[in-house]
Specification:
single chain, 95 residues, globular, 4-stranded antiparallel β-sheet
């Protein structure tokens, strides 16, 4: 069963461009990873400092491997101190 991830990233207004660039940078290498079925970056239309990453992974092991990649670590470093809050929900589809 696939694993869905919804990551909500709220950028500090003064760091909006830097956070957006960091998020955009991680998309191509993440999409190329084994087990990645979907990796999409979205901007919340009602909250201009909020980004939503929608991901789908073939299983938990591939998601765990994603968290260990150099590009994911670069994202974490690039956004450190520039976000207000990050929420990550891991979902399993029921129907």
């Amino acid at each position: 069963m696939t694993l869905i991830v919804v990551a909500t990233i709220d950028a500090q207004p003064q760091h909006l461009d830097a956070v957006r660039t960091a998020l955009e940078t991680v998309v191509p290498p993440s999409r190329a990873e084994s087990g990645c079925l979907r990796y999409e970056l979205h901007l919340d239309n009602s909250i201009p400092t909020r980004f939503i990453m929608l991901e789908e992974w073939s299983d938990k092991a591939h998601l765990t491997a994603h968290y260990a990649t150099p590009h994911f670590h670069a994202l974490v470093a690039a956004t450190d101190g520039k976000v207000v809050k990050i929420d990550v929900a891991e979902l399993s589809k029921l129907k």
